Amino acid sequence: MSTRTVSVWTLVSLIIGSTIGSGIFALPQNIGSVASPGAMLTGWAIAGVGMLSVAFVFQILAVRKPHLDSGVYSYVRAGLGDFIGFTSGWGYWLGSVMAQVGYATLFFSTLGYYVPAFSNRWVLAIAVSAMSWLIFWGLTRGLRQAAVMNVVTTVAKLVPILAFIVLVAFLGFSWDRFTTDFWGDGSIPFGTQLKGIMLYTVWVFIGIEGASVYSKQARERSDVGKATIIGFLSVLGLLVAVSTLSYGVLSQEELAALPDNSMGAVLEAVVGPWGGVLVSIGLCLSVLGAYVSWQMLCAEPIVLMARDGLLPKRLSTTKNAQLLSTIVIQLFVVLFFVSEASYNGMVQLATIMYLLPYIFSSIYLVLIARDNHVHLVVGLIASVYSLWLIYAADPVYVLLGALAVLPGVVPYVWTRRANNEKVFNTFEWFIVAIVVVGAVVAVVGLANGSLVLE
Prior knowledge:
By secondary structure, the chain is an all-alpha fold. The chain has a single domain (8-448), classed as Amino acid/polyamine transporter I (Up-down Bundle), CATH 1.20.1740.10. It is built from 19 helices and no strands. It has helices at residues 8-19, 23-32, 37-64, 73-80, 82-112, 121-140, 147-172, 175-179, 190-203, 221-247, 252-256, 262-271, 273-297, 300-307, 318-338, 343-368, 373-392, 395-418, 426-448. The protein is globular and about 65 Å long. The protein starts with 7 loop residues before the first helix and ends in a 6-residue tail after the last helix. It is a multi-pass membrane protein.
């Protein structure tokens, strides 16, 4: 792809392709488990404003700071220092690793509907582990996701999604069913429903920050902003349509009881078994393609941080970083399956980790945008929204997120000492203290059973 040759519509397709992943296939059950139709629509309205502001934060920073090209963590490092930058990059990497486990779990649990052997948790764990190591083996021997695979996976996920929307809208949607208990039955407060939906709305938008990656290839810089809006609204339209139509087919209680591939189950309720098969095929092809892509890409933050001197130099090679990522994927497979964590639990913990660069990058934009009121407002909205997401999250996942961050401090400190650099400044010591306290509370909670990963 040569410099400055990418058109607006190519940018739009790249944004849609990188954002629409496995999350939308599980969306009916995810949303139905926590929110009524009214809370769902309100949640999407908040998420629409908030996530668009986050997308624009990265697009604005890409234009204002074109020399910062070491991934999303580079903005945080530039604005808030090495350790906060490292924490952001480490969190983004761990989010990607956890997402891999979630993708594979969704893939095999969908197969389990047709192949009963995969319904056994330990068979599922072995299958997820085997696929991760098989892909790593392929990557070490030059496996690359070919352009034809990108096309196949993009078509595989968009065709069943569009078919779902059309078929459900014309054959299965009932306005009466949709409006029954529109605000819930009163047993769960509206605010609680709204908080419950928030992390799921972020999960299905993960990747929207990737729009900034393409800014250097755009024919015109203004095209990136246009493509971000068009691509974002297209993705939002698909997500809202799938969520809304599902409530017109099944009640909230019925949606909450569906399996992980809940989009397939909703379509099956409308047109019969072939609808579930159609969505399942699309989901499996889409997730398989995403799994290869993300296992290639999730090593990138480690490589970049090692090259920038924040991690040991030996991790600056792609092979070593991919090996570390695969080992940690295996570790999380064991942890998640031993603790009997659900797909929903994996998603929420991964989302907490992704929020770190979102929060810190937004704060960085606020710090440098005093000369541009529009940029300042975007940064403030994104900062408030991202921080509110942490507040809205189940404290279990926040504490477990602190526990996941803590091991990264060890190689960071070792590297700083090896390079004869100051380890922490006063502000960084304060952040370290918060992380340590959160991790200790998490360990104690896990030990006495007061904290449980759902």
